[in-house]
Structures are given as structure tokens and as C-alpha cells.
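Dig into my protein:

:::
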Amino acid sequence: MKTINSKIRGARRNADRIIQRIEEHTESFPEISSFQNDCCHIEMPASQEFLRSERTPMKEKRRCLQSLIDRAEYLIQQRPKNNEVFQVMVILDMGDLWSSQIIIGTKDADFDRFIHPINPNIRRFEQPDPGKLRRDWCLDIPHHWQTTGFREFIRDEKCQLEGEIWFVGEWS
């Protein structure tokens, strides 16, 4: 008989597959022709059910997030050596891990639109302690990266959501 708090069978195997897909999507730096609005998005290649489930062990969720960070660092090292300047950011949505992603932008990309969206239904309040993400999730984030976090409140006619969203990486 299953209890409500039982773990998902094969959680480690599922996380391994997600990490493998993240690595496949980031084997090489994306071609500039794949950019839209000066950005390329590499979304979390996972099922919503797995990442949103309370039954999925935190250590497996953490492994998937760490893989996004590690692969973003890899992409930074793989940036083309031409005159084009590229910025790399990882968005970690702690309220909905499935929404986490890597964003690569040209020097003209407006990363501020991700950090401070112009939407009356979204309110963000900056986290005063950038080390909170490292402590709470035990993530290994390169020390030279920028880290900015927010408490996020989303409200519309149907529902009200509250979460935490972090932006880590190299951007100007």
C-alpha cells in the first residue's frame, strides 16, 4: 500500500535522464541564427510532474538545478572567440523548478526585462541575502557570477501565487 509521502520509483534514473538531456542541449554554443530577440532559451528538459512532485526527493531536484548551473558555466567557456559579446544567465524558479532555464543573450539583449518584468500582475521584492540560494539548496555557484534573488508574487483574477526566483550568471 502506498502512502502519500512515498518516494517516486526511479527518481535517480529520471534525474539522470534529465541531466543527460541538459548536457545534450548544451553540447555546443548555440548558433546566433537560433536566437530570437537577441536571446536563446534552453529550458529544463523534464516533465512537469517529476519536478513539481512533492514525492520527488530534494536531492534529485537539486542535481537537476546544479546541472543547469554547470552547463551554463560550460557554455560560458565555449563562447565564440569572435567580436560578439554573449551573456549567460540561469533562471532558477524555486516555486516551479520546471520553469528554470538557461538564457544566452547577445550584448544587445535586455536581460533586465527578465529580472524586472513590466507586468502589473507580478510583484518582486529583492532578497537581501544572495547567499541564501547556496545555503538552502547547497548549490555550487561560481563565486564570480552575479546572484540576484526575489520573492515573487503573481496575482490575477483566478489565483495568487508566491515563490522565489533567482538569476545567476554573467550579464551586464
Residues 85 and 107 are 5 Å apart (CA to CA).
